[in-house]
Structure to design on (188 residues):
């Protein structure tokens, strides 16, 4: 349980819940507070972060998206770059599990970091046999 | 005041460095859109386009 270990990978949907104050966002905030005392224990794929930026820009404009990125830079979250091998693994996940590419990158990050993936997206049920998925409902 | 700057596509955003960023950033996009639904809709659209 991430609440106990305090170490996990955020899917874009979990970060979005935190920024939008939707129901599970309070749990993400609580774990981020814990991470302040014990960094770096929270990770997010750079592709997941870009996915959030895209959605925010699409609905609220470029300035809102940039503000979100600036705030994220101040949080106790390590942004994981996408390397060649990880991109290839994500392409494999996308093909096998029918995940969108950004979701596949989140799953690969959880696999490589050996941490549970926090998400609100039930599509990750498909990869439960490969990674630990923590659904925020 | 200490600040943090982000250059995104030519837009410079200046954000003050704050004492408790976790608390201050929580919910800062609240009310602007149904963000969770927007994200999941985007994913479903991408999955649909790919199939």
């Amino acid at each position: 349980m991430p609440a106990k270990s305090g170490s996990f990978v955020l899917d874009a949907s979990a970060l979005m819940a935190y920024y939008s104050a939707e129901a599970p966002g309070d749990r993400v905030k609580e774990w981020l507070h814990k991470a302040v005392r014990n960094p770096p224990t929270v990770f997010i794929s750079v592709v997941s972060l870009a996915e959030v930026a895209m959605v925010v820009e699409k609905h609220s404009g470029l300035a809102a998206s940039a503000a979100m990125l600036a705030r994220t830079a101040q949080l106790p979250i390590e942004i994981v770059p996408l390397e060649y091998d990880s991109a290839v693994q994500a392409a494999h996940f996308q093909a096998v599990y029918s995940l969108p590419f950004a979701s596949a990158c989140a799953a690969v990050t959880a696999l490589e970091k050996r941490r549970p993936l926090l998400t609100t997206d039930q599509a990750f049920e498909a990869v439960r046999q490969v990674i630990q998925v923590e659904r925020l409902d | 005041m200490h600040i943090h700057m982000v250059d995104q596509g030519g837009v410079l955003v200046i954000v003050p460095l704050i004492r408790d960023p976790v608390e201050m950033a929580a919910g800062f996009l609240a009310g602007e859109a149904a963000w969770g639904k927007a994200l999941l809709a985007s994913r479903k659209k991408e999955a649909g386009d790919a199939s």
